[in-house]
């Protein structure tokens, strides 16, 4: 189960970073707000991924 969570989180991280790199395509909210939301979630997910790998 933990391995599945790691894969899902890793995919989310990859997708979010991809969207952040294409800022001209993100028009639903200000780019700064979008990046702030993603950065916060990415930080949390990366901590979780590290803890999964330690288990």
Can you lay out the helices and strands and say which pair or pack?
Elements lengths: L1 H20 L9 H24 L1
Helix pairs in contact: 1-2
What does this entry look like structurally?
This protein is mainly α and 55 residues long. The chain has one domain (2-54). Helices cover 80% and strands 0% of the residues. Helix 1 (2-21) packs antiparallel against helix 2. The mean pLDDT is 74.
In short:
By secondary structure, the chain is mainly alpha-helical. Helices cover 80% and strands 0% of the residues.
Offer a few descriptive terms.
mainly alpha, 55 residues
Largest sheet: none
| Topology as a string of helices (H) and strands (E) | HH
Gyration radius from CA atoms, angstroms? 13 Å
Q: What share of residues is helical?
A: over 70%
Number of discrete domains:
1
> Regions with pLDDT < 50 over 5+ consecutive residues?
none
Based on secondary structure, the structural category is mainly alpha
The 3D shape can be described as: elongated
Number of helices: 2
The portion of residues forming beta strands comes to: under 5%
Through-space gap between termini? 12 Å
Count of strand segments: 0
Mean pLDDT, to the nearest integer, reads 74
